[in-house]
Specification:
Blueprint (H helix, E strand, L loop, with lengths): L1 H21 L3 E6 L4 E6 H23 L1 H51 L1
Antiparallel strand pairs: 1-2
Length: 117
Amino acid sequence: MRIAKLIISTFFIVAVVTFATSNRDAMILSLWPFNYELSLSISTSIILFIFIGFILGGFSSWLFSSNTRRLLKVEKKSVKNSNKEIKKKDKEINNLNNQITLLEEQIKLLESKKTDK
């Protein structure tokens, strides 16, 4: 897995560097409602917009998965409660098995006393 990450990262870095060196021409970004202009290379602006899109996509994914996270939290709590209940029932079963064993021994004793008479 580590080697796969290294190969993919290396490929990605080589692709970004190749793209950046191939697109060094300048372009002017102006924000319409404001009177502000920014001179950037084409590659820098494209990489910047891809990065901004990546961050916004991750944020929106996180935001819209809140319902799933909440349901997961509820299910984890339910599983925890179920495990506690299972442990409690296991203890009860063990106690009942011990009682059964004791009663069986008492029955054997009584039967042996009956046969001795």
